[in-house]
Design goal:
Elements: H1 3-62, H2 69-84, H3 87-110, H4 113-116, H5 119-154, H6 158-161, H7 178-181
């Protein structure tokens, strides 16, 4: 074999390896991107579930504490922010507002023993705590997927071509006041 043929075979081998690497990397980035999109969808489902519980919760508390209009308005506004949030950054801000609003409404509820004994209120409270737990789990899953996806994009040599193929880093779903969401709202009766 001549040196020219060997050089051509080596060049073809390098090109095949490079194409294989790009192909495998592209497919793994697509897989991670879909996983992150799915995880974000799970978060939005749980946020919507909680938003659907809020009107019933407000109505059950309103029956006992109708004079607490400011609390009900803040809960309603926080619910609207949550529903209209587009992406992790807006959802993070809305989440902080929702946590403050929920704390306010449960603080009002603590002042009314009859409300605390209401089966409807207790069931809503239980569903809300369950939903908060699901939101936290979904958030952890989403952030884990984002971490893996962003890391894959930033690794060398992926960083040389990932952005050129349309892969951009994703935002984490972080909350301004982490302490406010570290545990679901606690209600003690």
């Amino acid at each position: 074999m001549s040196a020219g043929i060997i050089a051509a075979l080596v060049a073809v081998g390098v090109v095949v390896l490079l194409i294989g690497y790009v192909w495998i990397t592209y497919n793994s980035l697509v897989t991670l991107k879909v996983r992150v999109d799915e995880a974000w969808s799970d978060i939005t489902v749980q946020l919507k579930r909680r938003a659907d519980l809020i009107p019933s919760l407000v109505e059950s508390v309103k029956g006992y504490a109708a004079h607490e209009k400011g609390v009900f308005d803040s809960v309603t506004q926080a619910r609207a922010e949550t529903i209209s949030a587009q992406g992790p950054a807006e959802a993070s801000v809305a989440e902080g507002h929702m946590q403050q609003a929920l704390k306010s409404i449960f603080a009002v509820a603590e002042a009314y023993p009859q409300l605390q004994a209401s089966q409807n209120f207790l069931q809503l409270q239980s569903e809300l705590v369950d939903t908060e737990n699901k939101i936290q789990a979904s958030r952890r899953f989403y952030n884990g997927g984002v971490r893996e996806y962003n890391t894959k994009i930033q690794l060398f040599p992926n960083t040389l071509f990932a952005r050129g193929m349309g892969f951009t880093e994703r935002e984490f779903f972080e909350v301004e006041d982490v302490a406010a969401i570290s545990e679901p709202p606690r209600i003690q009766f």
